[in-house]
Amino acid sequence: MANGAPRAQWGSRLGFVLAAAGGAVGLGNIWKFPYIAGEYGGGAFVLFYLFCIAVVGMPLMYAELIIGRRGGKDPLGSLRALTKSSPAGPALSWVAGLMSVAGGFLILSFYSVVAGWAIHFLMISLGAIEMAPEGAEATFGALVGNGWMSALWHSVFMLITIVVVAQGIQKGIERACSILMPSLIGILLILLVYVGVTGGLGDSLAFLFRPNFADLTPGGMLEALGHAFFTLSLGMGAMITYGSYLGKDSHVLRDGVAVAILDTVIALLAGTVIFAVVFAAGKEPGAGPGLVFVTLPDLFQSMPGGGFFAVAFFFLLIFAAWSSAISLLEVVVTFFVDEAKMSRTAAAWGLGLVTWGLGMAVAFHGPLLDFLDNLTTRYLLPGGGLVIALIAGWMLSKQDREAGFAGANVLAAGWTFIIRFLTPVAVALVLLQKMGLLQLGG
Ligand code: PHE
Q1: Helix or strand or coil: residue 344?
Q2: Does the CB atom of residue 234 touch ligand 1 within 6 A?
Q3: Measured in angstroms, how far is the CA atom of residue 64 from the centroid of ligand 1?
Q4: Distance, CA 107 to ligand 1 centroid (Å)?
Q5: How far is 299 from 282, CA to CA, in rounded Å?
């Protein structure tokens, strides 16, 4: 590719959908969505989150995919190619392009450490490591406090991520995701049947799907909107990058919608399973970030067949995180292959190593994790999403913009309106709130 060979392409439509859904479905779905839904009171929050996915997430997903598909390069290269005729185009393309590489690099460095914790708990479930006698809270505390342990699992996780990305689009990413995604869905369905037997399912469904609008605070609404970005991997060019390996325009809309629906259904199923376990044990849903690393492991110990449940659950978490990590590294790798003409192998190992280095710092210095998490999810993703929406709505030619609608003019007009006005305003609101410039309660 670097020396003029034609650009790699996904082998099949399904392969692309599984890879993109693999990128989207990650820690955000299985770790973060359940705990924020728990913290913000369930039903009404979930309903508003669904609304955000449909009204802001899906249009931006389409925008990123069509930009990648039409631009045929990394985010910077694609945006630059498509905005040539617009005066502000090149500058904004640089902004969004650099935010994308920075996003991939920074998110992956802490994402890999958290994914490493899941490996640690998998090892505990398999009996290879002992749980602390005081229970999961002490176990988790010791893990986070012990830099070497976190660093070990982080290194393992980075290694398996690099190996896949180094093998390229079809042989690496598409092949891995074609195994990981079906396995993930299979495990989730098994867990669902399992909680159907062990109980708590009714309470869980009521909590997640019976809205009580008095519970929905403005702060919760903005959290839902922000999470819609994170969970769909929007705002940092991940979908531009994957879109750049697509062959045809006409399926972009349908495939983008399929990815968003898969991501959403998997988050809802994961939430259903987790809250069934929590409610069956008579626990509270608002445990916060420790929900899957503290609350669940403790409950697994007292559940019938909990050992099996724990193994399946942590495999699920690792598979989800792995296919997302692959997409994060791929953004950075595609950038250096396209812009700096590096070989894929050199880019994957070289940049993987740099990311591993930052992750090591995260493993040994806990506060760095919160800092990087906040920096990226609060500012970088919504900021990048804002720039991408503005470019997509106002600077792309009509032909490029509407290429994925296959002549469906009403849809194209509706999308154009949303991406020009609604998305930028919604994102600006999230940004202002996150920066503390807009004080909304809750
Ligand atoms: N969407 C992933 C998740 O839910 C996280 C991610 C964000 C991946 C941005 C790629 C880009 O875990």
Answers
A1: helix
A2: no
A3: 14
A4: 8
A5: 10
Q: Using one digit for the tens of pLDDT, what is the confidence trace for 279-301?
A: 998 988 988 888 899 988 988 88
DSSP string, 227-283: HHHHHTT-SSSHHHHHHTT---STTHHHHHHHHHHHHHHHHHHHHHHHHHHHHHTT-
Q: What pLDDT, on a 0 to 100 scale, did the predictor assign at position 374?
A: 83
394 CA distance to ligand 1 middle (Å)? 26
**391 exposed, middle or buried (CB, 10 Å; 0-12, 13-18, 19+)?**
buried
Q: What is the pTM of this model?
A: 0.94
Residue type, 66: I
Q: What is the DSSP letter of 132?
A: P
Which one-letter amino acid corresponds to residue 255? Answer: D
User: How is residue 390 written in tokens?
Assistant: 């503005």
Q: Tell me which DSSP letter residue 285 carries.
A: S
Residue where the block lists tokens 């996780």: 157
Please state, in angstroms and rounded to a whole number, the distance separating the CA atoms of residues 125 and 15. Answer: 32
CB contact set of 205 (below 8 Å; sequence gap of 6+): 272
Q: Which atom of ligand 1 is nearest to the CA of 327?
A: 10
In tens, the pLDDT along 174-211 reads: 999 999 999 999 999 999 999 999 889 999 999 999 99
Tokens of 200: 């708590």
> The tokens of 400 are what?
């490029």
